[in-house]
Specification:
The structure is a homodimer of 319-residue chains. Chain A has helices at 3-11, 60-77, 96-112, 162-171, 181-188, 194-200, 214-225, 247-256, 273-282; strands at residues 22-24, 31-33, 39-49, 81-91, 116-124, 128-138, 153-157, 206-210, 228-232, 262-267, 285-292, 298-301, 307-308. By secondary structure, chain A is an alpha+beta fold. In chain A, the strands form three sheets. A seven-stranded mixed sheet of chain A has the order 8-10-7-11-9-12-13, sandwiched between helices. Chain A has a four-stranded mixed sheet with strand order 3-6-4-5. In chain A, strands 1-2 form a two-stranded antiparallel sheet. In chain A, helix 2 runs parallel beside helix 3 (96-112), helix 2 (60-77) runs parallel beside helix 6 and helix 4 packs across helix 5 (181-188). The termini of chain A are far apart. In chain A, 51% of the residues are buried.
């Protein structure tokens, strides 16, 4: 089976029945799409490398799920509806059993969001997956990092630190006792907040997905919006296992562990309670603080609303 | 310097002065583009892996050039005008000198085609480059593999086998004496046939870029168009060094060596001579045969116009 036959057999999806705005999918030099004239196109690319972003012995199903999910998380952060994906799969050997498992998990998640795989590449090399996700938004409606205003309230979805905790457990099971089943899932198969994003696009002033940790990602909002923030430490929602370990360590995981794929967003302070209720009907959201006019200055507050220092550092790939 | 600073310093381009249809570039969760309502969007993704698609000791300048050029070649094959690119660069260590050279070559080629880098990823791992190129065409004008009709004439641009010859020389300098400077360039820095593609979109019935070798790529046109072809072996334009080696070996390189990044296209037989002249003013083109109605059957003809067998096999990654 050569690369063309592999793509044909495992990745050429039959859904959805109508191609819609897709003029040409897999099988030519390039794909062709017709972006509706009232829509803007939102695109994000991410690479996951074996031994760096996932363990060498990770299952093909988990690798496929996570690769796609982290890209969709970026689309969610823009408030967009995901539509099309391209996939470049690099692998050492043509392992048909592996590919079958990978594609089955990939196609299942894609189908859940009515995504169409429209192209990509299959080549030989160290295991690595690059995906570009393409979504659409009504023109001008995409959420950006740059729209936060002083006085806005800062929210996060779900809770933080789950994936980081599960990862630490693998590295040190004494200091980090067994995580919950949900925390292991959050590490291997994070669920992108697509539905929340599409609701937020009509009400939020800024949004980002938490991939590098809240500290770094909220920092991006502050820099892009030229504002500051005050965050109340006790209001940061932490994953269950974090409540059982040393508080300082727990905070480090929640703030800088990364791999959360939750959304951090800002809402105008006067937003109707009904809008908050609508959001909460989709997923848990928590107000963790407020935007200030002190450009790029992020302060943490203790339970007595006094400023406090935290001793931690955001994660970046090459630091 | 962390990944964000690296992107900011080396990849955030200042050109072109007008962002045009780009609503949001590098620096958010995703890029946003407004595709003009009378245009369709053409997208192609390719990955180049160190030790597979280029030698481990290839220069960062050549790697950057080739990575971008092979993607642009796909856009050229669709007849499209390239507009935006995303880049995922995976590298073992943060080597600033390497990145500076890579980005300088990358930005130079991008600038030549007024391309804007709108996003991507920078991560740790074995050296590998994935690029997605995005182009636009007037709606419905993109060239496809599927439009060839019986009676059409088959053309190729430039000549074939140059890159394959240069590669073989590196592997066996006795059987393949020193290639020309141009042939080495064709291996390391192929020039995408962008201008030719945009002229072809108004006159060609089908088009493909020759990356896997003429035999395989013309085969894709025949399969997609449900037609056959007769190709005259002596009319296939071969690179200079191929004329000096054993004829059978030369044909193998020209037909299956791949990495040519020339275009193979079909024109209706009644096309005005002036159109051919216009094309030839951009780059050399050669008629190598004609399309027949024998689905997927490809015959080679000798100089006496008799069918002849060739003993060779198209290149695929996993065969």
């Amino acid at each position: 089976m050569n690369e063309f036959e592999i793509i044909e057999k495992f990745f050429k999806q039959s859904y959805p029945s109508s191609k819609g705005d897709l003029a040409l999918g897999i099988g030519d030099d390039a794909a062709i799409i017709n972006v509706p004239h009232d829509s803007e196109l939102v695109m994000s690319m991410d690479t996951l490398v074996s031994g760096v972003h996932f363990f060498d012995d990770a299952t093909p199903e988990d690798i496929a799920f996570k690769s796609l999910a982290v890209n969709l998380s970026d689309i969610a952060a823009m408030g967009a509806s995901p539509r099309w994906i391209t996939l470049s799969l690099t692998m050492p050997e043509k392992d048909i059993v592996w590919i079958e498992k990978f594609s089955s998990s990939f196609n299942k998640l894609a189908e859940e969001y009515s995504l169409i795989l429209i192209g990509g590449d299959l080549s030989k090399g160290p295991l690595s997956i690059t995906i570009q996700a393409h979504g659409t938004n009504p023109k001008g409606k995409s959420l950006r990092r740059s729209g936060a205003n002083a006085g806005d309230l800062i929210y996060v979805t779900g809770n933080l630190g789950a994936a980081a905790y599960a990862l630490r457990h693998i590295q040190d099971s004494v200091l980090f006792p067994a995580p919950t089943e949900i925390e292991i899932q959050r590490l291997n198969c994070p669920v992108p907040r697509i539905r929340t994003g599409t609701v937020l696009r009509d009400i939020a002033t800024s949004c980002i997905d938490i991939s590098d940790g809240l500290l770094a990602d909220l920092g991006h909002i502050l820099n892009a919006s030229k504002v500051g923030a005050e965050v109340k430490l006790s209001d940061i929602p932490c994953s269950d296992s974090l409540k059982k370990i040393d508080r300082e360590l727990a905070l480090e995981l929640a703030l800088t562990g990364g791999d959360d794929y939750e959304l951090c967003f800002t809402l105008p302070s006067g937003i109707p309670e009904s809008a908050i209720k609508d959001l909460k009907s989709i997923c848990p959201i928590y107000c963790i603080g407020a935007i200030t006019n002190k450009t790029s200055e992020l302060y943490f507050m203790n339970e007595d609303d006094e400023r406090c220092e935290i001793n931690t550092k955001a994660y970046t790939h090459f630091n």
